[in-house]
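ENTRY TYPE: paired fold submission
RECORD: A
CONTENT: sequence, then structure tokens
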Amino acid sequence: MSDSRDPHAPKAHAPETESFDREINVRAIVVSGVALAVVCLVSALLMWWLLKGFEHYDEKRDVRLSPVELAHPQPPPPAPLLQSDPVTDMTEMREREERELNQAAWIDRQQGTVRLPVDDAIDIVAARGVAPEVVGGKLGAPMAAEENKGPKGQQGQQGQEGKKVP
């Protein structure tokens, strides 16, 4: 550690007594800013010119109406329109789908088919599992573990005939 009274100690850097060493190159910053502004302006003008060119190209290639079609424009379709208010229609459809997904309802009372909310159905399947005949898609289908029990590796028909799904 140097003592301030020591004549051999390094002197403090004082900006008023020595020439100031400039670290910021203002000229380079200004030139870069101007160059950036010029590049942005030129690219915006090029995009405008390109879009005008596309518009002109589309006008040239557009199908022109015949004089008869110009004299007799096509009337709007008759009522009822398919969708008079698409936003309301979408909102109503989403609400209806939410009700169907989250409320239980009968699908067919004679056969005992019920629509359950998805969360309840997942809980029921997780609690009791899925019957093997339901996995195969038809009642009485052979179970996967019993398929290979036939003599000499042949598959036997040892399904559970007549068993109803609980």
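RECORD: B
CONTENT: sequence, then structure tokens
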Amino acid sequence: MDSTLASITPRKEKTMNELTYTLVGDYYLTNVALTDPPNAPHLGRYGTMHKEYLRGEEPALYATLLLTERLDPLCREIDEAAAHRLAVIGNHETAHEIILSELVYI
């Protein structure tokens, strides 16, 4: 038997490069724990829709953003931008209705 293989003993946890791994079956899986921001606002409709789009259509980008903890801030930013655009559209529609009502009375 190869001496390097004989010296390796399976352990439940292993530390390498400041990451910890857990032995599951025949494989070592990385112990990943994401931080949960304490007072983070809830994602709205458009932020959730973007998160679901990334999960389904762009899984590599989704995984990268999730593991670097940039997914939720990005989705919150998209949600805020969408809310702002909806407010602007609503203001324009209201102004348009006022102008139309004034034109009818002229």
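NOTES ON RECORD B: The radius of gyration is 26 Å. The chain is about 60% helix and 15% strand.
STATUS: closed
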